[in-house]
Amino acid sequence: xxxxSRPRRAFWGDLRFLIGIALVALxxxxxxxxxDAADDxxxxxxxxxxxxxxxxxxxxxFQVVEVGLGLLSDDYLGPEDLRSGQIAARTIEKGEIVPLSxxxxxxxxRKTTIVIESNTGIPEEVEPGTVVEVWHAPPIDDGRSREAPxxxxxxVIVRDVIEPDGVLASAGxxxxxxxxRSDAAEVLAAVTGGSALSVLPVGGAS
Length: 206
Prior knowledge:
The chain is an alpha+beta fold. It has two domains: 42-107, Type Iii Antifreeze Protein Isoform Hplc 12 (Alpha-Beta Complex); 110-201. Helix content is 20%, strand content 29%. It has helices spanning 11-39, 181-192, and strands at residues 42-47, 62-67, 86-88, 103-105, 111-118, 131-137, 150-162, 173-180, 196-201. The strands form three sheets. A five-stranded antiparallel sheet has the order 5-8-7-6-9, covered by helices on one side. It has a two-stranded antiparallel sheet with strand order 1-2. The longest helix is centred in the N-terminal third of the chain and has 29 residues, at 11-39. The radius of gyration is 30 Å and the shape is elongated. The termini are far apart. The model has no long low-confidence stretch (mean pLDDT 81).
């Protein structure tokens, strides 16, 4: 009677089995990590609306949410971290979990705010948080004409758009801008000197 040898299992079959075991192990580990992160969730602050650079921060600007950030939790603003006198160091978008790096003390800031009136209106897309250029056309000595428009200050942030209302409806649109303190004197000189001012979103002057 001939001897029948048992067929050997193919190498690839063994490999697929091992891969299957590894995938199951990875899935279990992933689920465990998700559950563990949920257990480690900590309260942090999320912006309730868009906060413009230079804006003073208060508790009303934020919502408290529970987020599992792990080792990064110390890098984000918690309810106990918010102090009076803090301002936004950059624009914080609505819904953003707030990093501590996006805050600074008001007395350390090099920014200030100034209100100007745009003689030519403003584009529809300009709103709080928009980065804009301010152009001006200074009057010529005879007072009946103006020089060619040129950029007065670039890359400033709109803090607020103040629409004309009531008896001011015939006036131009006013904007509150966040600017560097080093630019404030030049902007004020243009305003008091009678320059015609215009505002364009960055990239809109080409």
